[in-house]
Amino acid sequence: MTLDMLPVGSSAVITRVGGEGALRCRLLDMGLIPKTRVTVTKAAPLGDPIELRLRDYTLTLRLADAGQIEVSEA
Fold first, then answer.
1. Which of 11, 15, 9 lies closest to 33 in space, CA to CA?
2. How many Å apart are CA 11 and CA 3, to the nearest integer?
3. CA 68, CA 56: separation in Å to the nearest integer?
4. 3-73: CATH architecture
5. N or C: which end of the chain has fewer CB within 10 A?
6. Are 2 and 68 within 8 A, CB to CB?
7. CA dihedral of residues 31, 29, 18, 24 (deg, nearest 10)
8. What is the pLDDT of residues 9-35, one digit of tens each?
9. pLDDT value for 19
């Protein structure tokens, strides 16, 4: 399952960060690394972007970027 499929209010653990080049580096720099627990807290009215809670901060991410992150529900 990827992060963009996770419903609002659900938590999961990141298992793999995809993407290539600058995108992958940017995702990792934002703290989206394997074994990190994330919670989807909000979604925009049309569903894009989504707001995540991880590592004691809030992050807003586009669905296209969230689709590059594989998670397992926990």
1. 15
2. 10
3. 22
4. Roll (2.30)
5. C
6. yes
7. 170
8. 999 999 999 988 899 999 999 999 999
9. 84
